[in-house]
Design brief:
The protein is α/β, with parallel strands linked by helices. It has 26 helices and 29 strands. Keywords: Allosteric enzyme, ATP-binding, Cytoplasm, Glycolysis, Kinase, Magnesium, Metal-binding, Nucleotide-binding, Transferase.
């Protein structure tokens, strides 16, 4: 389907309904519910809620009720699920499923959107597979008519995975996982401060009975000393290895030790490894003051993260599209995330691979279990192994690292990872303070393993960062590269890092000292570096904006008839404004990439006037700081104030530099850690390629690259090749993936626009493409 249309004009839809399931309710589901309802209504369908999961489906009556646009308002910031979830023994019986089928047929519902774990989704598929049989039972019993059976001849199923454990194979992240990581990291950060004060060892148990994702990412994001996960039990003799490692850390001056244990952790013989077991071991063998903490259900609650809200919203939209395009022959599918791409996978294939993981663990095939979890899990495990279980190599070359441009959260995590992996790879790591200016002035010093010990959770830039570019100080830079015997260079920063890298490449023609391998790691709240879909720091800034908007919306909801105009950072890049608009439920987001004029402003004001006639009497408008030099924040505020007289009043907030600060989010810590590690491994290989006649000489285009996330993978792209896709005047890439999400923002705000569905997500095979999953 390669057209642009308003779905309502194309499809006369049968109703569909949404059910939320989970053995325990979790945070992030409501965004998916909201998106499914609103996009469903946008397409012209009736959308029903099923309260209390499958039990509500069996009981029928008031448990199945019509959803309205207003009924999903103010849901985004709520944890759990507003439509309830419950275990249901009745649905496991043929009689119970027959009752559920009758309730659906009577309402004319033939499309089912299910949000839950693999058990709930498997139940939905079983329900679908026996649908024809259930209709015949109802027909023979006289509970439905032949016409009703004909109209409901088949049932379409689409699933969205809600699980904080991230234990469903086929998706990089399940709804709720990122929010759970936020809760865990908040606790780890708090415990770290007391552990440092008292020189204690802390053992923390996190959820994950059958999947170690939460434990593994927590270990990476907190810089933990050890992690126990069910997919990869420790080798025999792990007790002595663990104690040696902890003792070694203390001998290097560390005042704390952190050990993360997944609740399903076990040894190679299937014996559980518990917090108390590890605590007793450390206390008895090392005499350390040790404490254990089991986080429990605190991980399931709280406000959803920005990532989970956007994920839920995107999944909800894709789920509706999947139902619209489904035929009686289309297998039940699950909407998944791969990189930054929304994809569809056959539901039962994903369930089968998930079961294969459990089987592999039971058979002791642990390497296979890690691979079956998917590329994202495998990359996390490999990065953890590099940082935690390898001895330093003999020093052979010198690597250097610097921060350039504005500071952002996650920079220090990338530096820590790069320094430690560099030392392990045999690099003498040098810290360059204050960017290119520091490189020119010789502000360079060796940096050790211990020096970066606690950097993962620290915001800002511990190395110091400046915006100065190298073009006018090239000679001084080349002299210091020679003086300090620098063989490679890692530049962590925003658009200045990208431009600075290009200038160094150009300078190679004149200065031979610049002929060294160079890698740029994008790190900026603006997310405007060419060559990468995501930048380190953008997620933290996005969460800051979203949480601020939540408070502002709460204020507006209390006073009623109030519209807030919020200015975000980003330079000319509208990423933050757009994604925060999706996460916070904004009515509009003005950005440079999507030009607007006075007519558009007029339409937005009229839209808010109409909105004030409903039960939702508040408004939220986001404006990117450089979206338009004439339509400033003050201009838009004054315009809305004047045109809204008698209907609503206005307030404005400029968020400013608070968006650059704060402790890094779990995503930015993990992303920075993996980027730092991958950059050093690439440099190590490049140095071997470029070693000629006893010296390093790198002058090919592929010896100076940007390391970036491209759709589903981290890739290295030559700086020179990215020039043609760069708008240097406005400091943005010429193509930006997130612009395709703009229509979703408008549809969810109830604008009557067309939705471009020319790039629909095709069904993929998770079993055939395990390397991608």
């Amino acid at each position: 389907m390669s057209v642009k249309l308003h779905y309502k004009a194309k499809h006369m839809l049968t109703p569909f309904l949404i059910i939320c399931f989970s053995f325990c309710v979790l945070t992030g589901m409501n965004a998916a519910v909201r998106a499914t309802v609103r996009v469903g209504i946008y397409t012209g369908a009736k959308v029903y809620f099923v309260h209390e999961g499958y039990q509500g489906l069996v009981d029928g009556g008031d448990h199945i009720c019509l959803a309205t646009w207003e009924s999903v308002s103010m849901m985004l910031q709520l944890g759990g699920t507003v439509i309830g979830s419950a275990r249901c023994k009745d649905f496991r019986t043929k009689e119970g499923r027959t009752k559920a089928a009758c309730n659906l047929v009577k309402l004319g519902i033939t499309n089912l959107c299910v949000i839950g774990g693999d058990g709930s989704l498997t139940g939905a598929n079983e329900f679908r597979s026996e649908w024809s049989e259930l209709l015949q039972i109802l027909l023979k019993a006289g509970k439905i008519t032949a016409e009703e059976a004909r109209r409901s001849s088949h049932l379409n199923i689409v699933g969205m995975v809600g699980s904080i454990d991230n234990d469903f194979c086929g998706t990089d992240m399940t709804i709720g996982t990122d929010s759970a990581l936020h809760r865990i990291i908040e606790v780890v950060d708090a415990i770290t401060t007391t552990a440092q004060s008292h020189q204690r060892a802390f053992i923390l148990e996190v959820m994950g009975r059958h999947c170690g994702y939460l434990a593994l990412v927590t270990a990476l994001a907190s810089g933990a000393d050890w992690v126990f996960i069910p997919e990869m039990p420790p080798d025999d003799g792990w007790e002595d290895h663990l104690c040696r490692r902890l003792a070694n850390q203390r001998s290097m001056g560390y005042r704390l030790n952190v050990i993360i244990v997944a609740e399903g952790a076990m040894d190679r013989f299937g014996k559980p490894i518990t917090c108390d077991m590890v605590k007793n071991l450390v206390t008895k063998k090392l005499g350390f003051d040790t404490r254990s903490t089991i986080l429990g259900h605190v991980q399931r609650g709280g406000t959803p993260s920005a990532f989970d809200r956007i994920l839920g919203s995107r999944m909800g939209v894709e789920a509706v599209m999947a139902l619209l395009e489904a035929t009686p022959d289309t297998p039940a599918c699950v909407v998944s995330l791969s990189g930054n791409q929304a994809i569809r996978l056959p539901l039962m294939e994903c369930v089968q691979v998930t079961k294969d993981v459990t089987k592999a663990m039971a058979e002791g095939k642990f390497e296979e279990a890690v691979k079956l979890r998917g590329k994202s899990f495998e990359n996390n495990w490999n990065t953890y192994k590099l940082l935690a279980h390898v001895s330093p190599a003999e020093v052979k070359v010198s690597g250097s690292i610097m921060n350039v441009g504005a500071p952002c959260a996650g920079m220090n995590a990338a530096v820590r990872s790069a320094v430690r992996i560099g030392i392990l790879q045999g690099h003498n790591m040098l810290a360059i303070h204050d960017g290119f200016e520091g490189l020119a002035h010789g502000n360079i010093e060796p940096i050790s393993w211990a020096a970066v010990g606690n950097w993962t959770g620290q915001g800002g830039s511990n190395l110091g960062t400046k915006r100065m570019l190298p073009a006018n100080i090239m000679e001084e830079i080349s002299l210091n590269i020679a003086k300090f015997n620098i063989h490679s260079l890692i530049i962590i920063g925003g658009f200045e890092a990208f431009v600075g890298g290009l200038e160094l490449v150009t300078g190679r023609e004149k200065y031979e000292e610049l002929c060294i391998p160079i890698v740029v790691i994008p790190a900026t709240v603006s997310n405007n570096v060419p060559g990468s879909d995501f930048s380190i720091g953008a997620d933290t800034a996005l969460n800051t904006i979203t949480s601020t908007c939540d408070r502002i919306k709460q204020s507006a909801a209390g006073t009623k008839r109030r519209v807030f105009i919020i200015e975000t950072m980003g330079g000319y890049c509208g990423y933050l404004a757009t994604m925060a608009g999706l996460a916070a439920g904004a009515d509009a987001a003005y950005i440079y990439e999507e030009p607007f004029g006075i007519h558009d402003l007029e339409v937005n004001v009229e839209h808010l006037v109409e909105k004030m006639k409903t039960t939702v009497k508040r408004g939220l408008i986001l404006r990117n700081e450089k979206c338009n030099s004439n339509y400033t924040t003050d201009f838009i505020f004054n315009l809305y104030t004047e045109e809204g007289k008698g209907v609503f009043d206005c307030r404005k907030n400029v968020l400013g530099h608070m968006q650059q600060g704060g402790t890094p989010s779990p995503f930015d810590r993990n992303f920075g850690t993996k980027m730092g590690a991958k950059s050093v491994l690439w440099l190590t290989d490049k140095l071997k390629e470029c070693y000629r006649h006893g010296r390093i000489f790198a002058n090919t285009p592929d010896s100076a690259c940007v390391l970036g996330m491209r759709k589903r993978a981290l890739v290295f792209q030559p700086l020179a090749e990215l020039k043609n896709n760069t708008d240097f005047e406005h400091r943005i890439p010429k193509t930006q993936w997130w612009l395709k999400l703009r229509p979703i923002l408008k549809i969810l705000a109830k604008y009557k626009i067309s939705l471009d569905i020319s790039e629909k997500a095709a069904m993929e095979s998770v079993i055939k493409k395990r390397g991608i999953v």
